[in-house]
Amino acid sequence: MAEKMALAKAINESLRRALDTDPKVVVMGEDVGKLGGVFRVTDGLQKDFGESRVIDTPLAESGIVGTAIGLALRGYRPVVEIQFDGFVFPAYDQIVTQLAKMHARSLGKVKMPVVIRIPYGGGIGAVEHHSESPEALFAHVAGLKVVSPSNSSDAYWMMQQAIQSDDPVIYFEPKRRYWDKGEVDFDAIPGPLHKAQVVREGTDVTLAAYGPMVKLCQEVAAAAAEEGRSLEVLDLRSVSPLDFDSIQASVEKTRRLVVVHEAPVFFGSGAEIAARITERCFYHLEAPVLRVGGYHAPYPPARLEEEYLPDLDRVLDAVDRALAY
Predict the structure, then answer these.
(1) Which CDD domains match (predicted)?
(2) Number of folded domains in the chain?
């Protein structure tokens, strides 16, 4: 059974299914209950499952994650919402010092099935602390899985897989795509959580992206096609681990790679991809791996964010540079 729905609704339906099928799943965070979250992603869940399963917490991110760790130790599968990307940093110590290391510290005896949902990225005209893309900070930490869906189907199924994981998963939700609609097949058999997917075939250049930038890369590929250029768009889906095999397979075909993400280019996830693919595909590449992303500067006021964020022209310029070699 398939249904067309917004990405935010797909996450809601996935949480609903998890709450319904597993009594050990709990949802917690600031305003997730009666309000249904600031983006209404958890709308209706507290009404249907009660205040002991969908929990409105104090404004204390460190306490929220610390409580989730304790619940996981008792056999629960907590799903934590951090209301905005920039609010996660009070909980950063709990995440990287405790949550990420508990499995290794206990020599594998302790599982940490905690999902931390983080709406992230710009494009909604919000102020600072509401538009950052901190995924590389978490991908650097061993013991954490870091994923980001780009469409409704992945939003639904990747949440299911994240909740079922015995390892902690940082689940980045592209807030500017919350209202984009797509088909969700509730009876599908999902592929591996950390497997990249080719969403558009091409032969000249590979565009690799995840989360909010996948749609932009598809628009870039469509614009390039009008000029006779064939771009392949690869949805990475997972930032840690990264599916280097799929990236390599695409680059061996196109011989050029442009990595696109909203986060700053400096020390961003694109840098790791560029280094690894240069090592793996040195004799296949006909141009250096190029990166398009945000600037190494604090996120700007809303009236300037379109200058800060990657857009069609900036990605097309990178494509032109790659093809010019």
Answers:
(1) TPP_PYR_E1-PDHc-beta_like
(2) 2
